Amino acid sequence: MLIGAGCPAMVVSGVARAETVLNDQRNVPFPYQFKDLYTEEKEIPNVQTGQKYKLRSMPDLESHLEENMAQMMRQKEDDEKRMREEVERLELEEMELLAVDKYHFRRSHAWVVIIDNAPWSIKPKKTCINDEGDEVPESTKARFIEPSTGFICDTHCKQYILIDSVWDHQNYYVNMQNYQRVSEIRWNMTDNKDWEHLLPGEPPEMRLYTVGSDENITESTRSLGEEKHLDAIRSWVNKLHIGLKEFEERFPNLEKTVHYAGAVHERFSPYSKRDGKTEQITIYYDNEYKDPNIRWEYYENRADLLQQIKLFYKSGKIEETFLKGRNDSLRFMEYNSNPIEPKILHFYPATRVDSLQNLSKTIEKFKRQSTENVPAYKDIAVRTIDFALGKILLKFHYALGALTSSTLEFIKPPKPDYGHEIKFDHQLTKLYKANISDPDPTPLELYKLLLEELKHQDKVKKQFEKLLEEINAIFDLRRQEIKNPTLKFSIFDPLRNGAARAMQMKQAAEEEALKLEMSSKPADFLAPYLVPYKNRALTYEESWAAFNACLNELKTRFVGLLNDLQRQYEDLTAEGKSLQRFLNKFEDQFDNYNYEKLVEQSNVIALHKRMIQQRLTLTHEESQKKYETVKASLMRDERLNLKRIGSATNY
C-alpha cells in the first residue's frame, strides 16, 4: 500500500527488543489523545473596537534585585540538573548496549522503513542549500513504522537493535556496516560499501553511469532490457482479496485489547456489540489495572444518537454526549450513580423554542417599546423574579439624558384566605426614581402592577412544571434506551440492508394480503353496531335494535345525499332563470363579445343541471338497491336473533 501510494518503503529484517516482538505495550504511556467529544455551539466572538486614547502605564519604580538574584539561582540549578540528566542519559545509552538476556540478539523481527529522498521515489525530492550556496538534494534519511502498532518513529528509537537486510519488490540489500546503534546506519543504497545488492543494477534509477558520451549511455540503456538476473517461479499464492465484511470485522474475534502503562484500550468492530460500542479507554491509578480512574466509551450507529459516555469511578459522575438530531434536542447529560445527586442537562438551543431555567430565579429582558405613549419610567427593561426570597424586581428603561434607570421592587405579600383578595401593603414596595420630576405612581397603579406581576409569576411556575414533566420524560426515555439499545444503519449498507429489505418486503406482502382479503370479503355492515355488546350473543330485542339502527343510518345517509343533490339542482335552476331574464332585458346593451360570454355561462349552468339531474336519478335507484341488499344481508346474518323461539314471524 505504501509503495502504491508512491512512498519509498522497504521491509527491514533484523532484531528487536522483546517488548516490540511480543507487542507488549505495558511500559508505554497511552499514545493517543483522549477524545472528549464536545458539541458546544460555536459562539461568534464579540470583537470590540479599541479605544482611541489610552492612559500611559505608570513607570515601575520598585527594585527587582532580589527577583533577578532568584532568577539567576534558578537558572544555575536548571543548568546543573540538565548536566546530571545528560550524564544519566549517556550511562543509560551504554547500558542499553548490554544484553538483557541470552535471547537479546536473537529475537528476529520485521518492520517497515521509509527512505526519504530515495532515488527511485516518485515523491518530490527535498533540497537544501550547501556551503557553496547551491541547491542540492538532501541526504537520505530513514523512518521506521512498526507493523504491530502502526506507530512511526525515527532511527533513534530504542526498540530496534540490529538490521541485517532490507528488501522490496525490486532488490535485496544486505547491511555491510559496522555500528553500535541503529541510528548510526547510513541509508545511501547506492553505496556498495554499506549495502550489498543481490541484483546488480536494480532498480534502474540507482545506476551510476561513468561513460563519457551520450552514445555509450544510449547503448547502456538499450542493453537494460536484455539483462537477466535470475529465473523466479510464479507466485503460488492466490490474489489477496479483502471483502467488505472482512474489512469491517477488522479484529480477530471482532475485538482487540491493548494494555498500556496505566491504561487499557479496547476496540470493537462496528455492529459487533449490541449497544453499538466501538471503543473503550480505561485509565487506572496503578499499572496492575486494579484501581480505575476514568473510562471513556464511544458509540456509533445509535438510534438515540449517543456518541460518548465518560465515567468517573471515584465520584460516580457519568457524562453522556449526544449528536444533534434528537426529538428532545438533548446535547449533554450529567448525572451520578447516586440517584440523590442532582442531574444537569444541556440542550441544543438552535432546535428548541423554549429554554430550561432554574426555578430559583428568572431574569427577563425587554426592548424599548416603539410607541411613544409609554414613558421610560413605566416601560420595563428587566424583570427579575426571585422565588427563594419572594421578591419581584422591575428595572425600567433609561430616559433620555438619564444616568440611571428607575427601579421598583415588590415583596410578595402572604397568600390570602380562600375567597379573599390580596391586600396591598405600601411598606412591601420599594421605589427608586431616576428623575425626581417624574410623578409618583398611585397606590391603585402599584396594586394593579403587583397583580399583573403575580399572574406572570404563576405563569412562569406553570411553564417550569411543564418543563419538569418533559425532563422526567427524558429520564424515562434514557432508561429505556440504556436498557434496550437500538442500532441504525444506512439503506446503502450492503451487509445489512438485505435484512431490512426482507423485512420491508414482508410488511408489503402482509399489507397486500390484507388489502386483497378486504376487497374479496363482503362488507360487514353490522360490525359497528355490535361493538357495545362485546362479542356476546344478542337477545331478541338487542338484535332488532341493531337491525333497525343499521337500516336507519343507511336510509339517513342516502336521504341526506339526495336532499343535497336536489338543493344543488334547485340553485342551478334559479341561477339559470335569473341569467335568462337578465339577457332578455338587456340584450341590446351588450356588444357581441360580452353577450357571447353570458350565453356561454348560461350553457355551462344548463350542463351542470343535466349532470346533477342524472346523478340524482342514479343515486335514487342505487339507494333502493343497496337498501334491499343490506336488509337481506342482515336477515341472513347469524349474529342477529330476529326470531323468537317457538314462534314464527312473517316479514
Automatic annotation (TrEMBL):
* Domain Dynein regulatory complex subunit 7 MORN residue range list: 252-362
Looking up Pfam families in the UniProt record yields: CEPT76_peptidase, DRC7_C, MORN_DRC7
What range(s) does the Dynein regulatory complex subunit 7 C-terminal domain occupy?
A: 537-641
State which residue ranges cross the membrane: none
Q: Where in the cell is it found?
A: Cytoplasm, Cytoskeleton
What are the record's GO terms for cellular component?
cytoskeleton; motile cilium
Among InterPro entries, the record links this protein to: CEPT76/DRC7_peptidase-like_dom, DRC7/lobo, DRC7_C, MORN_DRC7
The alphabetized list of GO BP terms reads: flagellated sperm motility
Which stretches are annotated as coiled coil?
A: 62-100
Q: Which UniProt keywords apply?
A: Coiled coil, Cytoplasm, Cytoskeleton
Tell me where in this chain the CEP76/DRC7 peptidase-like domain is found: 134-198
What is the protein's given name? (Mediterranean fruit fly) hypothetical protein
